[in-house]
Amino acid sequence: MGGIVIQYLKETKKRTKKTSQCDRVKVKGMPELPEVETVVRDLIPLLSLKTVIKVEVPGKKLRRPWDPVWSQLLVNQTIEKVTRRGKWIIISFRSNVQLLIHLGMTGQLCVFNQSTPLQSHTNLVFSLDCKAKELRFRDIRRFGSADVFLSQEALKEFFDSRELGPEPFNIPEDYWVNTLAKSSRNLKAFLLNQKNITGVGNIYADESLYKSGLNPSRKAMSLSKKEALLLAKCIGEVLGSAIENRGSTIKDYVGGSGLMGGYQDEFQAYGRTGEPCKKCGQPIKKIVLAGRSTHFCPICQPKKPRTR
User: Fold this and answer.
1) How far apart are CA 105 and CA 139, in angstroms?
2) 150 vs 255 pLDDT, higher one
3) Quick one: average pLDDT of 1-8?
4) Which of 194, 216, 279, 307 has the most neighbouring CB atoms within 10 Å?
5) Residue of 9, 16, 12 lying closest to 245 (CA atoms)
6) How many of the other CB atoms lie within 10 Å of CB of 66?
7) How far apart are CA 217 and CA 235, in angstroms?
8) What are 221-267's pLDDT values in tens digits?
């Protein structure tokens, strides 16, 4: 069987909102794939072929301390590309050295003018050789991380040890159907497990299940092949739409250019407890699954499978 290729970047007449920090909506959660992808896309033109000339550690330590040796290693290194794997940001240097960053819950990775005052809780500052610019990593709650790997091979070993599932935009059909069929966990827990599919978190699991009409408490193994393929399609479409809107404003989340996201205005289920379903008008319900708040419509997402 062929792979499920999801065409998620379709043309839209909707313009992205440039939401200011003072206007942002407080949403609980952590950056997921659309937010990380937005940061990466913002950073690509700002960092490509730029050279690091100094590394400073002005703030409190992250959950894993920054090794001072890494600061020396990155000086005079030229950035070749910025990419993403799951929820990780990868900054690759021409020397093959890799800087791996995870935003945690409140992480920000943005480029600033050197003259811009340093914000509190800034953990790392990478001075660049271009127009007095700095790449700054700031994480208020310090659940994020920054690590240096000496080669692409070492980074690959790290990701292999995590056993990450496939990216959600090109899921192999056989893999997806068979993995669901073997899992006795509920659909919410299945989607949150990064070994099954990488990049999906609490928000986009709820939104994808709502779009597909699947109840989050259903067992993964209960899905028919048709339902499984529909879920894969809806995941891609939801994530693609979120990327088009620069992700969702999640507490302190901003893209790499400092702009906020706008997809929180498009939520159909997540965070809408008690509000009318936009399809049937019944109140959105909230329960706890896999230790996470879970939002769904009990009418549009029935617990019992629809007649096949």
Assistant:
1) 8
2) 150
3) 34
4) 216
5) 16
6) 18
7) 17
8) 999 999 999 999 999 999 999 998 887 766 666 666 666 767 788 89
**Mind listing the pLDDT tens digit for each residue in 260-286?**
767 788 899 999 999 999 999 999 999
- Region 177-195: mean pLDDT is 98
Class of domain 34-162: alpha beta
Quick one: three-class SS letters along the chain? CCEEECCCCCCCCCCCCCCCHHHCCCCCCCCCHHHHHHHHHHHHHHHCCCEEEEEECCCCCCCCCCCHHHHHHHCCCEEEEEEEECCEEEEEECCCCEEEEECCCCEEEEEEECCCCCCCCEEEEEEECCCCEEEEEEECCCCCEEEEECCHHHHHHHHHHHCCCCCCCEEEHHHHHHHHHHCCCEHHHHHHCCCCCCCCCHHHHHHHHHHHCCCCCCEHHHCCHHHHHHHHHHHHHHHHHHHHCCCCCCCCCCCCCCCCCCHHHHCCCCCCCCCECCCCCCECEEEEECCEEEEECCCCCCCCCCCC
Residues of each domain in the chain carrying CATH 1.10.8.50? 170-296
Can you tell me which residue has the tokens 């700095």? 134
Q: Which CATH architecture group holds 170-296? A: Orthogonal Bundle (1.10)
> Catalytic residue positions?
31-32, 87, 292
pTM of full prediction above 0.70: yes
